Amino acid sequence: MPDPHKLLISLRLNGQVMQESSTRELIFNIDHLIAHISQLITLEAGDIIFTGTPPGVGMARKPPVFLKAGDVVEVEVAGLGTLKNSVAAE
Question: I need a labelling partner for 88 at 20 to 30 A (CA). Which of 32, 34, 63, 68 fits?
Fold first, then answer.
């Protein structure tokens, strides 16, 4: 990966873009995050580091948007791939 600090990130709900940002918007850069977390725990292949969320969170929207059964949520990091999940019924 040429530059992990220039990755576009988007979240789509049923095909509609709800959140969009870039890793350059992170408060702490990726090197700093990995170095800090590595001082606390041993990171293993496949570990995920959650860094928060960009603007556009559903409950902060007017009107609010909440997930419901049947919704399809896709999170894409350009150049890395897309994670797609369907919301199951309770």
Answer: 63
CB 84 within 8 A of CB 76: no
Which of 68, 48, 64, 45 is closest to 56 using CA atoms?
Answer: 64
Q: Where are the beta strands (DSSP E) in the chain?
A: 8-13, 16-22, 72-77, 81-86
Whole-number Å distance between alpha carbons of 58 and 10: 14
Token couple for 50: 């959650």
The predicted-structure confidence for 12-66, as pLDDT tens digits, reads as follows 999 999 999 999 999 999 999 999 999 999 999 999 898 888 888 898 999 999 9
The answer to whether 83 touches 75, Cβ cutoff 8 Å, is yes
What's the rounded Cα separation, in Å, for the pair 29 and 57?
22
